[in-house]
Amino acid sequence: MHAHNLILTGFRATGKTSVGRLTAARLQWAFLDTDDLLRQRLGAPIAEIVARSGWPFFREAERQLLRELAAMRHTVLATGGGAIEHLQEWRELRRGALVVWLDADAATIRQRLQDDPDSGHQRPSLTGQAVADEIEQLLERRRPLYAAGSDVRLVTANKTPAQLAEDIVQALCK
Predict the structure, then answer these.
(1) What pLDDT is recorded for position 126?
(2) Is residue 97 within 8 Å of residue 3, measured between CB atoms?
(3) Nearest-CA neighbor of 84 among 94, 74, 76?
(4) Assuming Cys at both sites, which of 57, 74, 134, 173 could form a disulfide with 29, CB separation 3.0 to 4.6 Å?
(5) pLDDT score, position 137
(6) Residue 144 has what pLDDT?
(7) Cβ count within 10 A of residue 15
């Protein structure tokens, strides 16, 4: 596949940012993270934005950003876990791109969230439940979207970010 962009999708804590940075370096492409871009644009951590303005406000800002990013070239883009739910924008974004779904089971995600000291302020609850308690419910809702909106699925459990980056470069070169 001769894609001009690479988009990483998947649930929280599946490695989109760390794998994306390594892959971009290997490809000598730019790297962007939609959550970082939204934090810069909105001037606060995501948890603070959501607490202040709510999820609908955040999702609308995310939708607008995805529209803008559809014009990027030679970029590795790590998207927020919920970006896949913006179906129209996702279709535009993935034109000419290889979309890689980084997948992990709920237990792996829960462990990674527990091991990440920054997780609490970077990854607020989406449902009002404790973050660890909402994983299965959200995975059930999003897995069909990730499957339909991706070209390649990589299971991230028991693989290092470097191994995953190598798998992605290989997929991109096919």
Answers:
(1) 62
(2) yes
(3) 94
(4) 74
(5) 87
(6) 95
(7) 21
Domain that holds residue 53: 5-173
CA dist 49 and 11 (Å) reads 20
Pick the more confident residue, 20 or 133.
20
Question: Which among 36, 19, 30, 146 is positioned nearest to 82, based on CA atoms?
Answer: 146
Please state the rounded mean pLDDT for residues 115-138.
69
**Could you tell me which residues come within 8 angstroms of residue 146 by beta carbon, excluding any fewer than 6 positions away?**
9, 10, 11, 84, 101, 103, 153
Taking a C-beta distance cutoff of 8 angstroms, is the pair 38, 81 a contact?
Answer: no
Query: Reduced to 3 states, what is the DSSP secondary structure of residue 97?
Result: strand
Half-sphere exposure of 33 (CA within 13 A, CB side): 17
Q: How many domains does the chain fold into?
A: 1
Residue 164 pLDDT level (bands cut at 50, 70, 90)? very high
Q: Is the pLDDT of residue 124 over 60?
A: yes
Q: Which long-range contacts (CB under 8 A, 24 or more apart) does 20-28 make?
A: 20/76, 20/77, 20/78, 21/76, 22/161, 22/162, 22/164, 22/165, 23/76, 23/165, 23/168, 23/169, 24/75, 24/76, 26/165, 26/166, 26/169, 27/74, 27/76, 27/169, 27/172
Query: Closest Cα partner for 143 from 103, 173, 109?
Result: 103
CATH of the domain at 37: 3.40.50.300
